[in-house]
Amino acid sequence: MKIAVIGDLIIDIKGFYEEEIKAGKNILLKNVKKSPGGVASNTAYYLKMLKDQVFVFGSVGKDFWGDYILGALKNISVNVDHVKRVNAMPTGFLIVVLDADSERTMIGSRGANEKLEVSQDELLSIHPDWIHLSGYSILNRRGKKILYNVEQAAKKLSINYSVDLEGIETGDLDFSIAQPIIFCNEGFCSDKNTKNSKITVIKAGSKGCYRVYNGEVIQHSAPKVSVKDTTAAGDAFDAAFIHAYWKKEDVDFSCEFANKIAANKVTKKGNWVKMSLSAVSI
After folding, report:
1. Which residues, other chains included, contact 216 with Cβ-Cβ below 8 Å and sequence gap of 6+?
2. pTM attached to this predicted model
3. For the chain, which domains are there?
4. Residue-wise DSSP of the chain
C-alpha cells in the first residue's frame, strides 16, 4: 500500500519522574532520551514496519532538530520529499514526563508544524492508495483547506482517507467531513464530528476499542499486557488499522489487529519499537 501521512513532526525529549509534579518545584528527569516523534513520524514508522510505502507531508524548521527528524525518517525509507522547511519557526518539540504508572505529562510547542500546508496537486502527484490526516493539522490557520484538499484528492482517486481527531476533539468543531474513517479517543468523540463518517473507531486504552459501523457499536477488548510506555500507542493503532483494513476491508479484523499492535507497543519503552514478525503479520 502507498499511503500519504499528513501531520506533526516533532522531537520528543522523554524522561521519568516518579514524584508528584508541583508548581514551583525543580523537576529532574531520569533516563532522558531524545527521539523523533509527532503523529506523522510515529504513524509512518509503524506503517513502514508493516511493509507499506509511506510519503510524509509535514513541516520542520531549518535547524538541527529538523535535520534529525528527516534523517531518522529517511533511515527507515520514508519519503520526505513533501516535508517543508521553514525559517519563521523552529521544529516542534515535546518534553514528555512519564510517572511511576507510565502515564504521560507533555509540555511543548508545535512550532513549524503550524506552517504546514498541503495542496491537492501534491497529494494527487504521488497517487496514494490511502490518505491519513492528523487532527492537529486542522488547527492550523489553513487547516480547513488542508482537510478540503484531502477530501477532494481522496474523492478524485476513489480511495479511503482517515482523520484522527486527537487534539481537536474538545473543540466541538464541525468540519462536515464526508465519509472518512474517523479515529478518536474515548470520552472525546463528538457526534457532530463523526456523524458523517464511514467508520468511527474509538480508542479506549486498556479496554481496547469500539467501532461504530452501519449503525452498530461493538467493543474489541485489548490483550492484557504489562504497560511500560504508552507514548505513540495511538499512532501505532492507527497505522495497524489502516494497514489491515486496506488489505482485508474487514472492520472487526482490523480492530483486533490494531489492538494487538498497540498492546505490543506499550510493553516497550520508546516511540518507535521493534516487534516480532508474528506480531505484525496478517
Report:
1. none
2. 0.92
3. 2-19+31-277 (3.40.1190.20)
4. -EEEEE---EEEEEEE--SPP-TT-----EEEEEEEESHHHHHHHHHHHTT-EEEEEEEEESSHHHHHHHHHHHHTT-EEEEEEEESSSPPEEEEEEE-TT--EEEEEE-GGGGG----HHHHHHH--SEEEEEHHHHTSTTHHHHHHHHHHHHHHHT-EEEEE-TTTGGGT------S-EEEEETT---HHHHTT-SEEEEE-GGG-EEEEETTEEEEEPPPP---S--TTHHHHHHHHHHHHHHHH--HHHHHHHHHHHHHHHHTSSSSS----HHHH--
User: What confidence tens digit (pLDDT) does each residue in 219-242 have?
Assistant: 999 999 998 888 899 999 999 999
Please choose, from the candidates 240, 267, 271, the residue with its C-alpha nearest in 3D space to the C-alpha of residue 256.
240
Q: How far apart are CA 204 and CA 217, in angstroms?
A: 14
Question: Which residue type does 14 have?
Answer: K
